[in-house]
Task: inverse folding
């Protein structure tokens, strides 16, 4: 147990070093511009000026002063960032540099360190088809190190055939987080039946779906006759990857599922980021594109 803890702490340190330069050089400013506080707090009342929104007029003060006055609100800067992370068995798959689960943890570390650099709180829900761990949101570097430590520990101890139920963390989120939060839902989304829960969560929070996919889950290479095991169900099938017909059907089916997922996200106004694990740190450019897109939207 002591050896395992030592290895996890070593990994935490490595991830912190790997993400530090990205956070400092790129993400902290982008994060701040994109995830500004959405709540508005009352600041003061002042005289109406030409161009002010008439909806902000304080009619009680206006009546007393016999002159129009408006309410002034200031942005509530502090945010709560919730990380909902799928650590089911299908994350233990990767054909290039890393497993999907490893990439998911690095993405979470990047977002968490960006959050605390902006003095925001970070919380964590690890899930499979059940809740594995809930860490209430807090501030500070030590807290983020704990979040990463929990992710690493449970990623190394995922039960075989642990399946995915995305509805489970979304339903817990609604019970434990009353304040509007920025929610990053990180999964490979090999699941269905979560649509209603996602829609409800996005009404209350600012939900961003991050899909992590391995390249072979989109286009299977020709490697001859091969046994494939479903990471979550354990079912083994024999697949003839030398057949162009079968490979095309495989690609078509997966593309259809991807398009259906993106159609769902758009229909309920959930922002999404598609990460394909085809390179070292494959998430940097997609996250940057997402940040730039949102920054333009909220200008």
Result:
């Amino acid at each position: 147990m002591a050896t395992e803890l030592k290895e996890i702490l070593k990994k935490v340190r490595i991830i912190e070093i790997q993400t530090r330069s990205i956070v400092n050089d790129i993400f902290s400013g982008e994060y701040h511009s994109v995830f500004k506080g959405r709540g508005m707090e009352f600041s003061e009342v002042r005289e109406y000026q030409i161009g002010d929104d008439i909806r902000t007029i304080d009619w009680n003060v206006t009546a007393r002063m016999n002159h129009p006055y408006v309410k002034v609100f200031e942005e509530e800067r502090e945010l709560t960032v919730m990380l909902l992370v799928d650590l089911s068995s299908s994350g233990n798959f990767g054909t290039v540099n890393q497993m999907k689960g490893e990439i998911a943890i690095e993405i979470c570390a990047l977002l968490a360190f960006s959050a605390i650099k902006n003095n925001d709180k970070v919380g964590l829900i690890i899930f499979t088809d059940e809740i594995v761990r809930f860490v209430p949101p807090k501030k500070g570097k030590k807290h983020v190190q704990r979040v990463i430590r929990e992710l690493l520990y449970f990623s190394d101890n995922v039960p075989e055939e642990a399946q995915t139920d995305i509805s489970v963390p979304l339903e817990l989120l609604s019970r434990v987080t009353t304040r509007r939060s920025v929610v990053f839902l990180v999964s490979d989304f090999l699941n269905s039946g979560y649509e209603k829960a996602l829609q409800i969560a996005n009404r209350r929070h600012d939900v961003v779906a991050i899909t992590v996919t391995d390249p072979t889950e989109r286009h299977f290479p020709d490697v001859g006759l091969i046994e494939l095991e479903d990471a979550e169900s354990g079912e083994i099938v024999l697949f003839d990857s030398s057949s162009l017909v079968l490979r095309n059907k495989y690609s078509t089916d997966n593309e259809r599922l991807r398009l259906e997922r993106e159609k769902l996200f758009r229909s309920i106004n959930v922002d999404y980021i598609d990460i394909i694990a085809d390179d070292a740190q494959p998430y940097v450019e997609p996250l940057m594109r997402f940040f730039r897109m949102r920054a333009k939207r909220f200008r």
